[in-house]
User: Fold this.
Amino acid sequence: MLNRAALILRYKAPAVQWINDADPSDDDPGTTIESANEERTVYLIPDKDAETDETLKRWVTRNYKDLFEAELEGWYTDPALWPKNRSLKVFEEWFEVECHTVLIDTGGGPIYDDDV
Assistant:
């Protein structure tokens, strides 16, 4: 068991609309909600911040800007394509927060951070 919780952001319709509008392609039918949510980034957060709905909400409120920008950058690295309004309200309109509090490491070996 790890002393972390897994946070996943599920895309809603407004986020998918932005993905398609930011860089439209005539050759591509566009991203759908289903395709946007096929492969999601898993954010590990301290397990104490996911103990209750209230503690999770406080953590998201403190960290939504970083989460929002990480998701935007995952689609388009040019911030000029990003929406100007990246408020908590917009974040909540664009993403559903999913949190899992039981993580079991079945790998058996050390966990490494490849950015270090």
